[in-house]
Input
Amino acid sequence: MLPGPTLTCSHRAGARLVEKGSWRTAPTDFYIVGLKELPENDNSPLVHRHIFFGHCFKYQFGWKELLQRFTVGGGSLLDMEFLNDEKGTQPRGRLRVPCRDVSRTEPAD
Output
């Protein structure tokens, strides 16, 4: 957990911190955000959209097994190492995301 505005930002954007491992029973349309690997010695299918450093696309150790878990479960991986900002570049340093209150309905254009 990061102190200060990051936590406030995540709450404003509709994200919430949850107990370790509770992501497994989250609704399948939820995004699961993490910073590191998934638990070791677990080959269960992955049904969610995960955002974390997957270390798959440079063929690092375990990449085939991890991607197979997504294939079997129907989930997807948004690897933080390859996410781009609104300019199409990879952010360096701290990853920043724009925040908006998703609890209110925005007017249609």
Observations:
- The CA atoms of residues 55 and 63 lie 7 Å apart.
